[in-house]
Amino acid sequence: MLSGRAGSRAPNTVSTDMELHHDIAGLRRSVATARQQGHSIAVVPTMGHLHEGHLTLVREALSRGSFVVCTVFVNPMQFGRNEDLDSYPRTLEDDRRNLEAAGCHCLFAPSVREIYPHGLDVHTRVSVPGLSEGHCGAGRPGHFDGVATVVCKLFNIVLPDIAIFGQKDYQQLQVIRAMAADLCFPVRIIGIPTQRAASGLALSSRNSYLSSEQRDTAAAIYRILRQTADLLKDDGTVDYRQREQNALDQLREAGLEPEYFSICAADTLKPASPEDRELVILAAARTGGTRLIDNISVTL
Ligand code: AMP
């Protein structure tokens, strides 16, 4: 059934027969068949409401693996009590169509019950201390435990060779890289550059909460990230804490409510010191109640 579909066709060919599984057993059978046929398995974990950023990940997966599984699961374990779990956009039919048009081979869209049959009060959680603690982890306690736990489960369900994530969620990517290395997952983790609107605003499922005015306001996040990155490269000032304060003021002046703006060492995510050459600047800010994140990498 699989032969002639995965691997043997051109990556851009429109597929009309993408598989859809809601249950773990069905997905496992499908992946096992693909593997028996010699395919390499690439997975793209998402929470759905797919946009061009997600589809770029899928295209990358198609160029690196010959059987591509995209997962759509709004993971309740990574949402805090007062967050947008209930209102998070769920558009599975559109997602299915977009994935099929992109040439994805298999969509795994499990229910919460399928992933957490006994509820969220699980016996085992995966925690990546250190990397999970600052930045988004400070404002969203338990968030990265939820992410690491569900990605660990998805890796054990799909058994991929390759997993594709976006650099837009930079801290998440570092957490997942560390989790995969520490737990000896035989999975190659690939990070893909952030896809943006013409204004510079990072594409995000949560952008659908924004009015057009709020979208304009939100574009200041990347503008200020870029300006700060340019300053770090150009004038060599290493008073990073002062730079962070200036950027927080600029975000407020642009009409945003900043949560953090952190100039960090790219690998540890600790506050950057003058000796660090590879930096990442991480930012989170709200407009109209919508929380947005973005980042920029800087090599000095
Ligand atoms: P999400 O559905 O928001 O959990 O995102 C699923 C995956 O898509 C994550 O690896 C994200 O980092 C990635 N992603 C989300 N937005 C973008 C974007 N604008 N560019 C690249 N990757 C993205």
Percent in strands:
15-25%
**What form results from the Cα inertia axes?**
globular
How many strands appear in the DSSP assignment?
9
User: For the terminal residues, how far apart are their CA atoms?
Assistant: 52 Å
Ligands in the structure? adenosine monophosphate
Helix content: 25-40%
Which sheet architecture does the biggest sheet show? 6 strands, parallel
Overall mean confidence score, pLDDT: 94
Uncertain runs: 1-15
Calculate Rg over CA atoms.
20 Å
Strand neighbour order, sheet with most strands: 1-4-3-2-5-6
Helix/strand structural class = alpha/beta
Number of helices: 9
Order of helices and strands: EHEHEHEHHHEHEHHEEE
What secondary-structure arrangement, pairings included, does this model have?
Blueprint: E1 19-21, H1 24-36, E2 41-46, H2 52-64, E3 67-72, H3 92-102, E4 106-108, H4 112-115, H5 136-139, H6 143-158, E5 162-166, H7 170-182, E6 188-192, H8 212-235, H9 240-253, E7 257-265, E8 278-287, E9 290-299
Parallel strand pairs: 1-4, 2-3, 2-5, 3-4, 5-6
Antiparallel strand pairs: 7-8, 8-9
Adenosine monophosphate (AMP) binds next to helix 2 and strand 5.
